[in-house]
């Protein structure tokens, strides 16, 4: 897509808002999906600005590298270096090594992650951690809506809830004794975080107390052995969602803590978490984040193995499930315009208490919380709201036993999947992996450069498409997601245009994108089967 074509496309879109009476305009967040537009977030009634204002905002210096222009001359002036700075700002990578600096026992070789915001603040969040008291690693992607608060809180808390669910009774008792004795509790996770992945330090104590109450509940169950992995993941998802709800209803120590609890509960987040322990892979998903495996067959060809199902208003299973949970007279009102109650595309999510609480409870909580508009909480009860809850955070858990041909796992928010198919993602990761493993050109001081050898390398790269610019494969995926043209090649002009969209239009053309790619250690997996 040329710059002129894209600028024309953007300018036309500013005139396509739905204008209502009284100089009001209905703004919804839309993303293109299979040639039809879907609304993912809650719409808001806002004053409708004149087109001149919208055009001015397009060209304002809202972010670095955004430039002023006019309708006649729509200019996107980003150099390749500036494009790379933007795309690589959220990169995170980690290689798994033991105390001897080797990767002999772990089935995870390394992981690479990145994030590109469209919303401000970004509503996607991610987590990665090594389990310290049990075996394995965990990776999570969390896609927020109606604000960033819920996704941020879930990204901070959910892995701890899963880890606690897997602890032995003895370890839980030791943790409880340490708290009672006012001694430090042994850490249960080693988090792998990007410097920008910051949380809510003001409410850390509340989060710890809720986690403690949960492990006390697990001790009260008096069952040995404890929960298996599937039970642990389901229990952790449901318990955290319940705690989010209770914290919004309970009195808090300060107004700040109360406001955070309310914002977390009244926004929402879908979640996908993978737990990898040796050859055992469990994936728990609630919502429309997605996980897939990249599989390399014996003949060298690549295939895709989906590990999750999108829980949304387009999925027939979810439609049948919800209709089975509510009276028959609600069949025609459960899904309106391909949205749950006409509001939400995902059918499973954390938070979103306005689709879980009764009308009376919502009114009771909000009437005592002051200025809800300042908290960005939308007070809206949809029509035909008769038998809540309509939304659940209960995940669907998939188990897969890793094979040596399973080379990598991709977990991502729907911002990626809206733009790239499962097959395209595997193709891009596989191509990137092949490119990184290519023989490197010989250096001049080693021996004279052979021009024929260099020419053959260039031809190999040309045959595979544009050579990769990125060491981090998650960046490589994001670059292709927003910058590919109709031929599947990265168009630098389109890429620059997509990165310079102003905040009030960016979400119309792309969502937040968060990706984590986990590479498996084939040698470790082969040894497992060899030693059985």
TrEMBL record:
One of its GO terms (molecular function) is [pyruvate dehydrogenase (acetyl-transferring)]-phosphatase activity. The keyword Repeat does not apply. SUPFAM superfamilies: PP2C-like. Residues 108-520 form the PPM-type phosphatase domain. Gene3D superfamilies: PPM-type phosphatase domain (3.60.40.10). Keywords: Hydrolase, Metal-binding, Protein phosphatase. It holds the Pfam family PP2C. SMART domains: PP2Cc (SM00332). One of its GO terms (cellular component) is mitochondrion. Belongs to the PP2C family. This is PDP2 phosphatase. It comes from Turnix velox (Little buttonquail). The lineage of its organism: Eukaryota, Metazoa, Chordata, Craniata, Vertebrata.
